[in-house]
Amino acid sequence: MKSFRGSAHNISEPLLGRVARKHLLFDGDHTVVIQKFRWGLGHKALLTTNNDLPKQYVKMPCVYGVSQESLSELHDGDVIKVYPDGNIVRLWEYGSDQNVIFVTDKCNCHCIMCPQPCDSCSTSSFLHENEEILNIISPETNSICFSGGEPTLEPKQLESLLAICKRRFSNACISILTNGIALSNFNNIKRIVEQGNKLLFCVSLHGDVNDVHDKIMGVEGAFAQTMRGLYNLARFKCWIELRFVIMRQNYERLPYYAEFIYRNLTFVSHVAFMGLEYTGEAARNIENIEIDPVEYSTLLRKAILCLHRRGMNVSIYNIPRCLLSRDIWRFSRDSISTWKKTFLDICDSCEEKVNCCGLFKTSVYISPHISPITSSKIDNNRMPN
Ligand code: SF4
Ligand code: SF4
């Protein structure tokens, strides 16, 4: 999430609100209003580039001394949270399809590559804040993603958030990122599905056999439960995206995984093969899990083409084009969120930069094989393996 700072005045507790740049009293270039409601009443705070606190703001909660560059990145309709120490965090970006609502920081797994380590005993509740966000964002919002932790561990909260979505965003595509374990309970899934409109479940399945998947997830029996969850989702005719994060523990399974999906899970709408983001647990376990995409590119190509030729939708997330065989470039997607994405200086001379997903700013590992793609290299070196 994008965050920046200024000096806080008159702010004793975190304030959440919607950004309004156009306002009768303030010019949006130097001062931005934080509204309580969608319809423009009830100002909660001001953000300003002024370095001293202007007299007219003395009674207002205000963050002054915000850089012009940061302020200009805020749009009408963004939702931000302002803290008493002057920190400002953007929780929702207007018009972006990369916004995520964090339902909980609890999880029932201990994945060796979890980019965002969770707390299995957490009692924090984000419900009130999440409801507030969903109630003030634009009704034209067309995509909302629920994540965690594991969002299905808070079924009541998830149901209540989905109910708001159903009421306010009847045509939006709602996705839920899940490990699928809690979905093995038929009643859990029934309640969730009954609340939502157009639900897409993005389910992690990192292997075609239980010992590989269970070891990665850190939970014995995870594979069997997730499989049960997938069949439950199929009974409700939900859209399903399978997510396979490629690492040292499972890369050799890639072709077998593709075959397994085709034989057992043909009802899924989409299969995504994902490169690792080396942060959180993945950074801590790097010696154990690290693998360069160059090492598995032949197996990945095999898996991708196996599913594609059989009519299944398949994508590659988070792997730069220069690390893939040329004939599977068409499956690579712009999957890294804008605020996390970066490029190396050498990427400036790459002819595929505009189509490339880039690299994670947050990763502690960058492949030494990144090299700009030029017409001559396309012709000579990057033909299909
Ligand atoms: S990667 Fe997902 S399922 Fe695994 S521990 Fe992290 S939040 Fe839980
Ligand atoms: S050189 Fe850079 S821009 Fe080009 S494909 Fe590789 S990572 Fe992407």
Write a compact overview of the structure shown.
The chain is an alpha/beta fold and 385 residues long. The chain is built from eleven helices and 17 strands.
What does this structure look like?
- It is built from eleven helices and 17 strands.
- The protein is an alpha/beta fold and 385 residues long.
- It folds into two domains: 3-92, Glucose Oxidase, domain 1 (3-Layer(bba) Sandwich), CATH 3.50.30; 100-336, TIM Barrel (Alpha-Beta Barrel).
- Helix 3 links the parallel strand 10 and strand 11.
- Helix 2 (127-136) packs parallel to helix 3, helix 3 runs parallel beside helix 4 and helix 7 packs parallel to helix 10 (293-309).
- The longest helix is centred in the C-terminal third of the chain and has 17 residues, at 293-309.
- The two termini are 38 Å apart.
- The model has no long low-confidence stretch (mean pLDDT 91).
Comma- or semicolon-separated keywords:
385 residues, alpha/beta, Glucose Oxidase, domain 1, TIM Barrel, 2 domains, 8-stranded mixed beta sheet, 7-stranded parallel beta sheet, 11 helices, 20% strand, binds iron/sulfur cluster, rSAM, rSAM_sf, metal-binding, iron-sulfur, rSAM_paired_HxsC
What does the secondary structure layout of this molecule look like, with pairings?
Layout: E1 3-5, E2 7-9, E3 15-20, E4 31-35, E5 43-48, E6 62-64, H1 68-72, E7 79-82, E8 87-92, E9 100-102, H2 127-136, E10 143-147, H3 155-168, E11 173-178, H4 186-195, E12 199-204, H5 210-217, H6 222-235, E13 239-245, H7 254-264, E14 270-274, H8 281-284, H9 286-289, H10 293-309, E15 314-317, E16 341-342, E17 359-360, H11 375-380
Parallel strand pairs: 5-6, 9-10, 10-11, 11-12, 12-13, 13-14, 14-15
Antiparallel strand pairs: 1-8, 2-6, 3-4, 3-7, 4-5, 7-8, 16-17
Helix pairs in contact: 2-3, 3-4, 7-10
The protein binds iron/sulfur cluster (2 copies).
